[in-house]
Amino acid sequence: MTQRAPSEGQGACRRGQLRRRDRKRKVTVTTEATLFEMVALGKHCVQMAVEEWVRSYERDRELALLDLISFFVQCCGCEGIVTAELYRSIPDSSVVHKMTEKFDQETGLYYKKFLAYPWILTILWPEKLQNDFYPIVGPGPFWKRFRVNFCEFTELLVQQTHSSVLCDGHLMDTVICMLSSLTSSAVHSLRHTSSLAAMKLLTALAGVKQGTCTSKYRGQRLCELQSVSRVKGRHKHSVELLDQPTQQNRPLTIDNIIRALFKRTFVPRYRDVSSDIRVICVTELGCWIKLYPDHFLDDNYLKYIGWMLYDKDASVRMQCILALKALYEKRESAMKLRVFFHKFKKRILSMTQDRQPEIRSECMQLLRLVSEHYVGVFSSLEYVFLFQFVYSAYRPLATAAGELICKRLLAPPPQEGLAAQNPPDEFERNLQNMKTLIDFYLQGEFHRHIPYLVDGLWDAAPTLVRNWECMTSLLLRPRGRRQGLTSQQEQVLIEILVAAVRQAAEGCPPTGRELSKKAARDMDRTRRWREHANMSRHFVKVLPQLLSKVPSREGHEAGTREAVGAQGQAGGCRSEGRPGRRPSPLLCGQFAADKEKVTPLLQIPRYCNLDVYDRDGLGSYLDSALLELDCLVQRHSDMAVLEACARAYGAYCDEGGSAHRQATPACSRLVDMLVDALTPLLDVFIQHEKQGQVLGHHEMGRMCSMLRRLVAFYSTHDLSSWNLYEKMDSLLTLQGHQGSLPTEVVHCALQGTYYALLWQIAAATDRLPPQAALLDLRRRLMKFCVACRVYLSHQSKVLSGKAFILLCDLLLILSHQGPEDDAGLGLLFFVPDQLLQARLLAFLREHVFLEESGPEGPSRVYKEEDSEELHELFHRRNMLAVFCKLVVYNVLDMSAAAEVYQFYLKHYHHFGDILKETMTRTRQNDRLRNALSLLLCLQQLFQKHMDTCGLSYDPIGFICGPFYSIRLLARRFALTLGFDCAPEAAHLIHRRGLAYAFSEAPVAEEEEGDRQRFPNLSFLLLLAEFSCKIPLAERGAALAHFQDSIPEGMPRFGDGDMNPLLVYRKSLTKTDDAAQGEEEPAAANPFDAICKESKRQQELPVATCSTWTPDTLASSAAGDPEPRTSSSSPNSKR
């Protein structure tokens, strides 16, 4: 590095350098270690570098400043030459012309001249920095440490000189001139490095000024205290020292430096084109306001943070929110930001809908702090808008919204000072908070996802959602004569309880909720195990009471009548093996009689540690729980309750648990009782059917209830030892012969036979049976497949749908049992033939892709009151999903998916996600076969269109109408090809498509008999939509192949924009409008721009909310609920 210094230097140069006599003379500076090298050595050398530079500045001010300037320039990545010439020796008129920044084409160097009083500095460096590298952005740990050391050097420079040479009128003037000139450079490295140095200088100056003000305030306080001592004649020596001036009177010098540096560096750079520089400016501005609030906590500086809230870069917006959040954490600074918040309130509220989830969560925390400091800052509707984020898929945002709910809605814990005078009623407070939370869920009309609500409050209100005693007490025994929970509130509380139990057991948020990028929740395993053990110990005691809660007198009498009727319907079945203990109607209380309440309660044993029964001596509670399960199985006939009971028995009968020895015999006795009750009923039923007689209604109801119970237990327990397959198969055989069995009986027989076969396959997989047994199992499987195939055409939609789902699931299992020639499990291998595949596709067309009634058609949006339609839609989605699994797992040929891809656009609203996921999975399996399936789908649709419309050439029909919908589908298919290896699939589609377009012989046109036209020529319009996936470098080869594919004697390109040959050729010759990313390909003609679908921004339903407000919640918690109504307000813009 060479430097040019002025002749008016300060005597001899340091470190043995010669005296500078002429300002134009170049002097080579040889040092043992430059400032750059010392800073790069490490943190321990930064202090030494600053101290050495201060000493050199005291000896030779001009040479030290040149060293400092060279250090900053070298940190910018410029390894060129720095020269200097005196400013006062140049006429003022030529100074402006010296401030240049140009590229010299002759030398290939980039040079910049700028003023750094008292010099004009010139920097030369190569035009292009190597790999755009400069030290503060260098990769690796070394350059990251260098950036930290660089910032520390800048701050130490101010701290070491603030009491000596900082305010000498020469040092900071030169530095400010140098930094302001570098920050205005067009070179990014100069601008970035100098901006970082200027901002760090300002941070250090703000810290020094605040320290000076603090010392001055402390000195004044000490003088006031010592003045009292002076009157009393004490500490006279200290008073005399305080009266002596210790430093010069320079109160405004540092403030002037701060203003000048802010005006000349921050103001031009806070709106820099580079987001890195903008981030530095906003971050350091937040530090200045926090360090020196007396100066920076003003609207003149806060406005920059408000303006940068609208920045397009996410990192800038994040730093603005973090800066405001740091200010609102202190009440002193928060009180001075009231005007600022009201000015930018709308923008901050809208940032809760930012694209970046991290910004949304930080913004929510900021709004929570604002609500704590300002009373009435948010309206009721604004609170409703903020509360809904507790259901957000991003967990930190949901937790922040949960904290806001706790601060705004829930009653705070009592203060310690009032505890001694008036002890708080903990139960009453928890009761009020829980009812408030329940009313928030019921009246909010946001979502119906209680697990998301519990997870949002898991860390925000642990004393509420983890208070097992409080929740179970509210469910079991309302206190005194106070008003208890309504039936709807009990239902919500039970769901909250079960969701909290699940999260405490699994230790993870519900499915679909995204954790933060930093790390998942790191909870101490010992603490989590202890909480899980305490929860299990509590619920093994309370669960029998929850299942046997005694209702009020009226509810008790109704429950007793239902229990007696159920026992009579079950044939007087009892819990055999327990003499003297008969299930009492009292045990079947309020919760047991309500299937919607007892079903979630039966999930609790699956999340409890059942080893506490033996470890803590709680065996009596296990017997009570099994007795209640026995009673529920006997009482209920609903499939959901029975399956929940079967899963609960499965948790108790787990071989690894301590409850296995007691629960397994109880479950076996229950199954024995059900089988013994079913056998005579089934024999009588079969005999009556063979004789053509009808079984009585009462007996038929009993048999159906027994079948449902056994099928429910068959789903989770292996009941092969009871030989239920023969009983179920006899019903299917009888239905095949007679054809008059009730739908419910056949439904249970199909499901039971399917479970029986699955358990037999599982047993054969665990332990290979003899070949004869495998052949017998194969015969049973084929027989069941034939039965399901017959039921596909049944008039009952319930039976046909069930047969379709069971058949698809069984085909998926059998196709993965091994190769067909294997003598072992390969005997069970089976794949569907073409006839069965065609039958499955026909079933989908008839029962899944239905024509929706109403003006909206397939895009109809179902509401909450359309429960039956929603259930039917869910069933149709399930049937489509099981069929798509057969395609994804190669059970069916990939060409079978072409039939369902035809409905991708027409039924996109209801089935688009399933079909899109199918395309993605098949593309991952085999990209070329997936491309052929897409092409086959277009060919089938095109052929249907030609059969309907004929060979008429209608250009208008190509841009609107049915053919245009096929073009849109082709455009969507092109987007699903992806990015990796997409050209291969696109080339394959083009080659096969061209062959199809010219495959049939030309026919004469009706209007002009002398001209002939290929029937499939219009298919080229569909192929044109895939041209965007061919790289520009390969389009020439594709165009040559297209020209070679045109038959001889055919006119090359006719007139008209909608000539298929011309459109296809233009799609291959485009070079500037190729689709990139997920954007749609450019329109092939001007009419496409008109027909394109409009894309609207999706907004959260801010204005769609009920009349519920926090005030109505408070009245509801106090026992004065308001009627539930709904209203809407105008939509608000984001």
UniProtKB/TrEMBL annotation:
Q: Name one Pfam family in it.
A: HEAT_SCC3-SA
One GO BP on record is: sister chromatid cohesion
Query: In this protein, which residues make up the domain named SCD?
Result: 266-351
Where is the protein found, in the record's own terms?
A: Nucleus; Chromosome; Chromosome, Centromere
Q: Which domain of life is it from?
A: Eukaryota
For this UniProt entry, what's an example GO CC term?
Answer: nucleus
Record's InterPro entries? ARM-like (IPR011989), ARM-type_fold (IPR016024), Cohesin_Scc3/SA (IPR039662), HEAT_SCC3-SA (IPR056396), SCD (IPR020839), STAG (IPR013721)
Regions of biased composition (Polar residues) lie at: 1104-1115, 1124-1134
Keyword Hydrolase assigned to the entry: answer is no
Q: Does the keyword Secreted apply?
A: no
Q: Which UniProt keywords apply?
A: Cell cycle, Cell division, Chromosome, Chromosome partition, Nucleus
UniProt subunit comment: Part of the cohesin complex which is composed of a heterodimer between a SMC1 protein (SMC1A or SMC1B) and SMC3, which are attached via their hinge domain, and RAD21 which link them at their heads, and one STAG protein.
Question: What family does the Swiss-Prot or TrEMBL record give for this protein?
Answer: Belongs to the SCC3 family.
* UniProt name for this protein: Cohesin subunit SA
User: What species was this sequence derived from?
Assistant: Suricata suricatta
- Supply the gene name: LOC115284284
